[in-house]
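Hey, sorry for the delay on this. The queue was backed up all week. Below are the sequences that define the complex (chains, strands and the ligand SMILES where applicable).
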Amino acid sequence: MSETRVGRVLRTDAKVCQVAFDGEVRACAPRGKLFEDLGDIKTPVAVGDWVEVSMGDEMPGIELVRPRENWLPRVASSHDPRAQILFANVDQLLVMGSAAKPRLSPNRTDRILAACAYHEIPAHLVINKIDLDKHGDVAEFIETYQNAGIEIFPISATEQDGIERVAEQLRDKVSVLYGASGAGKSTLINAIQPGLDIKTAKISKYWDAGKHTTTYSQMHALDAVGGHIIDTPGIRVFRLFGINKAELRDLFPEFVPYNGKCGFSDCSHDHEPDCAVFDAVEEGKIAMTRFESYLQILDELAPPPEDDTPVAPPDR
Ligand SMILES: Nc1nc2c(ncn2[C@@H]2O[C@H](COP(=O)(O)OP(=O)(O)OP(=O)(O)O)[C@@H](O)[C@H]2O)c(=O)[nH]1
Ligand SMILES: [Mg+2]
Ligand SMILES: [Zn+2]
């Protein structure tokens, strides 16, 4: 019988995964049996997985994915409702946006933060390119997300401004950098660990957007500070997977103090009369962008499985 070893997945491609064993990286192929009974999950292996590998053959085979400590799924695509597992077994996620070129999308940020809250993955916000902040947008982002209880790292990766604080946050942890294309994820990793030389690219002049330079997720060792970081491709859309309408309101931390203060005890904060969250938005206590994100996500989610909300009798 061939030797079985335990390794960690650094990168996944269609049929091959790069797996790190003590000091050695090998290309390994997931066995066909891993693709059976996947249910509503699209792919069996994710970056960050611990896997058991039989080493005998020329191409070692991944026999088993060990149970995950945590994982982050999203809906695979608009044509495919299954879960795409973005990564597994991480200590934290840093959502990355930039002050400009491209300007941080509150909606995308809020989606990622809500998904992390649901999956109990600690999440922080890095706002890059503060050197381009000509309109004071950064101060507004900071206020919005401080209100939501999120720790914020305003930085300039190219000017090396604020980098040490991020490096400290990464120390000895497994972290993920996630966000829009062109936000500067790969630039930041290169700044913290210069030898990596990850490819980066200029923003499209025409679209003011990134060019999807990073095309696969990959875990890198951070020798400079200790720990690992997963660089990810820029995302366009993030649809929450496996969360229902009733669960969403608790994933916006600044809404939670108003639970039970609305006219209806089970208020979904979606245009019901006498809604304390809506009032708080009008009074400027909750950011309008956060409320808009909430309503947009709510609209996409399925109702809870046993929706026993009393239905009003018909008018007759
Ligand atoms: N002005 C300015 N430009 C920056 C900063 N950080 C990164 N950039 C530039 O932004 C562009 C995109 O950076 P990347 O690191 O490739 O962005 P990314 O988030 O990895 O993008 P994808 O791989 O496409 O997801 C590059 O031209 C960087 O030089 C910054 O702090 N200030
Ligand atoms: Mg990149
Ligand atoms: Zn309400």
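The chain has seven helices and 13 strands.

I'll add it to the shared folder too.

S.
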